[in-house]
Give the backbone structure.
Amino acid sequence: MTLPTATVPEKIILGVDPGTQVAGYGIIAVQKGVMRMLQYGVVQLSKYTTYQLKLQKLHETMIRLIDEYHPDEMAIEDPFFGKNIQSMLKLGRAQGVVMAAALSRNIPIVEYAPRRVKQSVTGNGNASKEQVSIMVAHLLKAELDPQFFDATDALGIAICHHFHENAMPAVSSKKTKKGAWGAFASEHSDRIL
């Protein structure tokens, strides 16, 4: 049975490109397969003097966005492996803070590798940030500031999630795909404070 257009629920996806100096976010709404941008921007963390303060500001921003837009799901960039262990550790902490914000509001989280996001959005897993930004603007039919690459990357992550979710069986907003952090949290609620 097909629901009338007016009753087809709108899904809101929060995409996040976590970082230790600049973190990007992008929020899209999808209804009947049509995407539209609700908000995008960056959190400038380089101005804060301590790493703990950076993490606090990142967490506060994520909570504010979640409380304002009530996303059904969060899509986040997967950790990548680099040669600098300290940088990877700091990035992992930033990702953890973002995920903790979503989990505190019972929002399912899905992770995507950077290459997969680029492939989904542009058709090329090696696309540049400029190419991703151009395709994101085209797909959302929106004028985007080309200087906010972290924000357009975050929108790309949200778009990637929409594309991949539609290629798979539907999952309600209260459930998560196997392997997602939200699934872990629901299966191990006794391990979460």
Observations:
- The chain has one domain: 9-191.
- The radius of gyration is 16 Å.
- Confidence is low (pLDDT under 50) at residues 168-181.
- Helices lie at 51-69, 85-104, 114-122, 129-140, 149-167, 181-187.
